[in-house]
Amino acid sequence: xxxxxxxxxxxLIDSDGRIAAMGSSGEVGHPVDVSSESxxxxxxxxxxxxxxxxxxxxxxxxLVPEPDFADWIRRLIxxxxxxxxxQVLEAARQGIRAGWSAGVTTLGDTxxxxxxFQAMLELNxxxxxxxxxxxxxxxxxxxxxxxxxxRFDRLRxxxxxxxxxxxxxxxxxxxxxxxxxxxxxxxxxENLPVAVHVxxxxxxxxxxxxxxxxxxxxxxxxxxxxxxxxxxxxxxWLDRHGVxxxxxxxxxxxxxxxxxxxxxxxxxASVAHCPRSNRRHAxxxxxxxxxxxxxxxxxxxxxxxxxxxxxxxxxxxxQARQLADLSAExxxxxVTSGAAAALGLEAEIGSLAPxxxxxxxxxxxxxxxxxxxxxxxxxxxxxxxxVLTILGGREVYRRVAA
Length: 402
Fold this sequence. Notes:
The mean pLDDT is 92. This protein has helices at residues 25-28, 69-81, 85-101, 115-122, 141-155, 177-190, 202-210, 213-221, 234-240, 258-267, 275-281, 288-293, 313-324, 328-333, 337-342, 371-379; strands at residues 9-13, 19-24, 42-46, 48-53, 104-111, 126-133, 162-169, 194-198, 248-252, 270-273, 297-300, 360-364, 386-391, 394-398. By secondary structure, it is α/β, with parallel strands linked by helices. Helix 3 (85-101) packs across helix 4 and helix 5 packs parallel to helix 6.
């Protein structure tokens, strides 16, 4: 993704799983002691990167939207709670394998059970497992943070290979201001990546901006003090509590205003854009064109199967392209090099560059006369067109001929 497409290209991956050389087949050569294969009629891309997903929800299927977002969240929590621990773990494993079959090699996964993290470790996968934090009552923030730290510290020594841990104070409608501050300060000291759902729905904005709406009614019914408001947008509210920073991933940001975009850019934060999920829940599109114009790092994600099923990362890229009138190349960057930058992993993945991990996907396309046509065909492809997925030089998926 860092140079024009190469016709008749070749990729050489070393024994450590990193790219040793990339270019035309003549330039790369064929070392005699290296196994090789030829794939005709394919385009070879960097492994796709799903900037935001929920592995532990795999298999639920898309839920019918409720009249308001708060009720939909409540129903999702009930369905998720009905699963056993082993069921949740198996769902996460299935989500990873399904991603491989669609060319996805790295995930930005968000969940609270730890199943996504465990499944990634078991399968020697690649990604960041953002462990969720919940707690809307401000008086309980210290205790809630201490309990989260205990759970996180039990997981932290297990991180290995290409699986990293991050933290996700869930959303302004489920986390108090004091808890946000505690988590943000600690994550900054520990140099941990942070992911937060924000500016996701009208109901969230009503809670933060005016202490009104369905979430406010739920809080009041549970005896939770309403947030102190001053007309703040959810993103401004996060900024006031020290959450925005270089390692912060803002998930959705559908309702981001021009001033919010300025805040995100100034903080150096990034955005996970989930266009099909956004359209389903908020019935709005994130201001993708303005985010990109502001120089903000943006990656595309699928969100969860509860929002959009089946999962198809390139379908999300196609939707993003329409929203911001992007070229095919720019749309593909949103699931490769742009997504890598959004997760803070651009030095490791996202392009077929020497020294990067040998992550690649071979997608079968019709013959193309030009490089531009090849990119168009790649963007238009479906998961069934993926013939081979390589993760760190290791084959994790190969389509079996019918």
